[in-house]
Amino acid sequence: MTDAALRPESQVELFTPAGRRVVLDFLFRHEGLAVEIEGYAHHGTREAHRRDVFRFNQVLQCPEARGLLRFTAQDVFHHPDRMISEIRAALLASRWREWSGWAGSSRACPGSGRWLEPERSSTA
Predict the structure, then answer these.
(1) Domain ranges, residue 44
(2) Which range is most confident: 41-45, 59-63, 120-124?
(3) In sequence order, which residues have a C-beta less than 8 Å from that of residue 8 and are 6 or more positions away?
(4) Over the chain, what is the mean pLDDT?
(5) Tens digits of per-residue pLDDT, 27-54?
(6) How many CA atoms lie within 13 A of 114 on its CB side?
(7) Residue 119 included in any domain
(8) Distance separating alpha carbons of residues 30 and 101, to the nearest angstrom
(9) What total of structural domains would you count in the chain?
(10) Pair type for strands 108-109 and 114-115
(11) Do 56 and 14 form a contact (C-beta atoms < 8 A)?
(12) Sequence-ordered list of residues with C-beta below 8 angstroms from that of 2, at least 6 positions apart, any chain
């Protein structure tokens, strides 16, 4: 990521509101974007998959992580341009939401050039 001029923090320790500790591979703190790299060697069993699902849900409970991207080791080594492009699109969407006042919303469509209208509550 450094070669692509992206400067996330690495191996970031966060805590859920319930006090559970999680360590992220990468965090773009200002944008609240967590990035996890998964290798099949450590995630290739049913039990590992169950733990990962639980862990990713825990990550999104941390106030610092408002979004999460997951990549495989194959993405990192064989498709780095695609991975970097996805990270940049997510960072751009996060910055747009902050600028537009949609902080915390996931209604943006990064990479598509389209932005969805916010849902309006019907309290008539």
Answers:
(1) 2-109
(2) 59-63
(3) 1, 26, 27, 28, 33, 35
(4) 80
(5) 999 999 999 998 766 667 888 888 888 8
(6) 4
(7) no
(8) 15
(9) 1
(10) antiparallel
(11) no
(12) none
Q: Is residue 123 part of a domain?
A: no
pTM over 0.85: no
Task: State mean pLDDT over 14-39.
Answer: 92
- 114 is a domain residue: no
Residues in the chain: 124
Count, in order, helices (H) and strands (E) of the chain: 4, 6
In a domain, 51, yes or no: yes
- Residues 79-106: pLDDT tens digits? 999 999 999 999 998 887 777 665 544 4
Residue 86's domain is classified under what CATH number? 3.40.960
**Widest pairwise Cα distance in the chain:** 55
Task: Pick the closest to residue 40 from 72, 68, 69, 12 (CA basis).
Answer: 72
